[in-house]
Design a protein that fits this description.
Its main location: membrane. The protein is α/β, with parallel strands linked by helices and 242 residues long. It is built from twelve helices and eight strands.
Length: 242
């Protein structure tokens, strides 16, 4: 059974967290400490809770995360499965789903709180860090596309009222495009809050596989998903392409 760190459980009993941050991980030992360290001041000053959901890592991800998180859960692999499990164990009335390679902007918790006073859900703009000179353009395109379509991606730090997340059934438990499908469900309830503050996310997939190759691959997958191709088939194509 998962257990909360004893010191935090006492503080939560006195003051429930404003925000539960759910972070799915899989073999992120190289970067999980850098991802969790900036959240530590927020855990006791806001307060927030940090929930790490491991999908069966074969490295030291869990060991590194345990002293830096309020709750570490084990889950079958699959980002949607992991995030849904984290949401089930969350204590706050607001949820933030944060990828393990993504850093929040300053005053993120305050911005989320203000945004959820007017919207049921939202996301941040994104800035990609990495070697490729194309990454600023990729980030700009992602932000513009999201504003035009009202569709958010998981890289942008999606935040949602917990009651709304439950009402739409959480993330669809599919192996790819779960963020797009959740956005489509949420759009039926309200438009998203599109915050101009930027999360900084790793551009490693663009660096590793080539910027234009990755851009074309993602566009092709999105187009085929829009045309009705199953997420399972697209996940296989994505793995094969990589």
């Amino acid at each position: 059974m998962p257990t909360r760190r004893e010191g935090l459980s006492l503080s939560l009993a006195e003051k429930p967290p404003h925000l539960s941050i759910v972070i799915p991980v899989l073999n992120e030992a190289a970067g999980i400490e850098a991802a969790l360290t900036p959240l530590q001041p927020l855990r006791f000053s806001m307060p927030i809770e940090v929930i790490v959901v491991d999908g069966g890592s074969q490295d030291d991800s869990v060991k590194i995360a345990q002293p830096l998180a309020d709750l570490v859960l084990n889950s079958p692999a699959g980002r949607a499965l992991q995030m849904n499990l984290g949401a089930q164990h969350a204590s706050a009335s607001a949820l933030l789903f944060l990828h393990a390679d993504t850093q929040l902007p300053k005053n993120a918790v305050e911005q989320i709180t203000q945004a959820l006073n007017r919207h049921a859900w939202g996301r941040f703009d994104i800035e990609l860090s990495g070697r490729s000179g194309w990454l600023p353009m990729v980030g700009w395109m992602m932000n513009q596309r999201s504003r035009l379509t009202g569709i958010a991606t998981g890289d942008q730090g999606m935040f949602i009222c917990a009651s709304t997340f439950k009402a739409v059934g959480g993330f669809p438990e599919q192996p790819l495009m779960e963020d797009i499908e959740l956005s489509k469900r949420l759009k039926k309830l309200s438009s998203p809050a599109c915050l101009g503050a930027k999360v900084i996310s790793s551009g490693r997939r663009w660096d590793e596989f080539g910027a234009w190759k990755t851009i074309l691959l993602m566009w092709r997958l999105r187009y085929r998903y829009w045309r009705g191709v199953s997420a399972t088939q697209l996940a296989k194509e994505y793995r094969d392409a990589r």
